[in-house]
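Second attempt. The first submission of SDR family NAD(P)-dependent oxidoreductase had a stray character pasted in from the spreadsheet, which I only caught after the job came back as garbage. Lesson logged: always re-copy from the clean sequence file. Corrected sequence (258 aa) follows.
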Amino acid sequence: MRLENKVALVTGAAAGIGLACAKSLAKEGAKVVMADVATERGEAAAEAVRGEGGEALFVTCDVGEKAEVDALVARSVEAFGKLDIAIANAGIVHACDFLELEEEDWDRVLRVNLKGVFLTGQAAARQMVDQGTGGTIINMSSVNGVMAIPTITPYVVSKGGVNQLTKVMALSLADKNIRVNAIGPGSIHTEVFESVANDPAKMEGILSRTPMGRVGDPSEIGSVAVFLASDDSSYMTGQTIYPDGGRLALNYTVPTKK
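This time the job returned cleanly.
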């Protein structure tokens, strides 16, 4: 197993991509600390990982609060003795017209999606430096860190920031044997995606700009996370990988299956 004896932290791990990443890491032998603000769902998610033979611990954490993030890292070390991998996945979306966007909604999204990634990465990196063993940090971005959808302004801006934060962190931490990369998923079939999946017109719009003709599964993001967390990517840092079904490469629309 590629991550045997490694300890990994995943934020936003109660469901969706975060849970998929936690499961994938655990299957490769990592001990996983799963964090989320949704305590009940998070506990159930950790139990699901344990039910599949993995070793997992859930910790309630608001990634926008520095004290909680610091406590999360400390709890991870208390439980498993060290920290080797950190995946800053927690994120939220707020949709509305640009002219109707309220300041508090802008602040709320940036607080979780960008500040939360910074706080998680900094706390994890400090622990890795103290250990003297290096480590790997993975930030969750999006294809919308490069493209733009006008109705989700703060989300788009936050993910563009994550891409640049990833580069800055990678350069700052390279001499400390800490690699920092990001994952920028395209359309992935999570619970958040359900409302789109049940609307044929919206689905056709998404598939028409996805050359592979389907949305991704969360487990496919988990596989990329394992790659970036393992020695298979040992010469990679400061990069964002886009598992998007070909979406970013497309400059037109493709026929959809009827």
